[in-house]
Amino acid sequence: MPQLQRRAQSSAESVFARMSRLAAQYGAVNLGQGFPSDTPPAFLLEAARRSIGTLDQYSPPAGLPSLREAIGADLGVDGADIVVTSGATEALNVLALSLYGPNEGSLPDQVLMLEPVFDVYVPQARLAGAEPVTVPMNLDAAGWSLDMAALRSAVTERTRAILLNSPFNPTGTVFSRSELQEIVALARSNDLWLISDEVYDELYFGERPTSLRELAPERTFTVGSAGKRLEATGWRVGWIACPTGLASQIAGIRQQGSFCTPVPLQAAVAAALPIARAEGFYERLRAEYGERKNMLVGGLRELGAGVYEPSGTYFLTAQHPAWQAETLVQTHGVAVIPGQAFYAFHAPPAGLLRFAFCKSRAEIERALGQLATSQTTDSHEVV
Ligand SMILES: Cc1ncc(COP(=O)(O)O)c(C=O)c1O
């Protein structure tokens, strides 16, 4: 029998898929994988129904012109600088293939990222032939913080890019303008690309996050996701806002993957983006998720967990001495993501768990109830 290439042999089921599978198997509440329980807004669904049967053939690889214009208008960027992708996941992969790689006869390019790290960043860098290098975030009683000195000292002659995520999954951190200014200064002095994963750009609980592109338009690629913004993660519509003049080359790499993103869904997102903005959809989303966050933060604290309150995203991280992800799903019916899912090189903080609160209030209540029962059971077991 022929063998699979080594890179395929080493690619295993992700922890996210595994926890969703275990949640289904044990009938657990799924506070693991980050997909919402709510249905997408009616204005999006109706637009998709209208598009099927009228827009059924290929679009250009860079995307349907109406969608590039709509994304550009929403971000305050020229539509010509937008490349539409099949989700932010593909956007990140296209950028990995476009910005760094192996170097014949010498060592590969390096890309810097922070740890905890979203699960696709490290394998995508490796598949592109580059070397991922992570800098751990600090965690203490006050919460997560960026170690700027460590980031600075991680830059080498081989560094090509810094890949950032703000609002940050899983920590919920929103980097301040002055932190981003320091990162931009570092990128400028070392001539690095900046990849800014902003899929949670509309999910914040304080001040609106600064978009890195505002500070360094000449070197920033911004990644976005209609799936995250419009509660339709299965639609796989994402985008890259490129520095001026680079979109056609990025689209050239993008066309070697899925060629183009399903066209009726591109058209639906094109119609929905201005409606979402005009009708205050994101404000309602933030208000609703803010309440669910407060419910989960309060409930977990009552159960004795140490909770790091997020400033953005629909995730929070927490620690509890008696909780462990495998046991929680199997015996207590609550699926969460273990901290090690976000650590590729460094050790995760002990007992770190990620909880998603893009789930219904009923699911969050049920999960808290089951965690409370688990504590009673655990204390009986100890006695
Ligand atoms: C930080 C981050 N980037 C990218 C993605 C992928 O987004 P998409 O579903 O649009 O591929 C996710 C999904 O959870 C994410 O959390």
TrEMBL record:
GO terms for molecular function: transaminase activity. Its cofactor is pyridoxal 5'-phosphate. Signal peptide: none annotated. Pfam families: Aminotran_1_2. The gene is dapC. PANTHER family: FI04487P. Residues 29-370 form the Aminotransferase class I/classII large domain. It comes from Deinococcus xinjiangensis. Keywords: Aminotransferase, Pyridoxal phosphate, Transferase. InterPro entries: Aminotransferase_I/II_large, Kynurenine-oxoglutarate_AT, PyrdxlP-dep_Trfase, PyrdxlP-dep_Trfase_major, PyrdxlP-dep_Trfase_small. This is N-succinyldiaminopimelate aminotransferase DapC. It comes from the Bacteria.
